[in-house]
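User: For my dataset I need records formatted as: sequence, then structure tokens, nothing else. Please produce one.
Assistant:
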Amino acid sequence: MAKSKRDGSPLMAIAAIILVAGAAGGFLWLNHGKTTPAPVPTVSTPPALPTGKLQLIRDRLTEARYLGLDRKATPQGIEIQILTLGKAADGLEGGIAMTSQTKILDCARGRIFDGNLGSFDAYGRLTATKVLYAGTLGRASDTDEVEMTLVCGPAPAAKGKPVIVTGYRAAQLESQLPPDDYGKVAEAHPQDPAAWAWLCAAGSRARWRAETPADCDRAAKLNPANPEVLLDRGFLNLKIGRPAVSEAQFRAVFAKFPDNAAAYYGLSLLQAMRSGQAASRAARVHALDLDEGVVDWVVERYGLQSISQEYRVR
């Protein structure tokens, strides 16, 4: 957050304090280069959680940041939406699961106008709102705000395929572990595809429970066209020692999605476990031809760091 510039006059300092106190729980940034700030909004309207396409733009140990790909031109600049997820369901400051914020980017001048920020729990319920304000000239972009470069360009060279999901629930499945008691939530919503997909993802990657195989079977049944869910089930069965089941599931994935590199790589691991080295290498090479970054993605997503270097290259 940029520091406010203050006029040397005591009268102006008092006026700034009054404005901050009257901002209904919000924050105030005074105009850069101005002595009289514009009025602070008094009505707090938080952005809704996004339902459109989102691109993962920052992935850290404790949080993930997504940029909404739906953009709107305004007189001030380009309006965007940012979704930030804690890696745990209470992982952001204050124990919240995620925040959603609108911003307007003035690309020509390199300035940002902050919209209001909403804080949400893991179930998508609004828990708090902050009124953010950047003055009539906006504020300078923070070095951590990669969205400025991505939207205004020139964009940095991309490493591998971008991670793009649709809606905040898919972003949760990609980046966030559900609450510890989420099994009860899913069981209370037996036909909710996103709930079971999230539960299966947690079990296949980091949080096993005795019901996880059944969780993933239900998730796959409710999400037959979602390759991420089908992969979670396939890698779960690979990890728990069900090679025949896992192989059938990987083959089902690339039967529907012929360019799914992760399914071919999963098959290559199974074939290596059976000492089918030639078949393993052929499947691995095919996976790498489809996506050079697939090995790193699988290793990171499913915690398979013990895979030797031999099975990570062509």
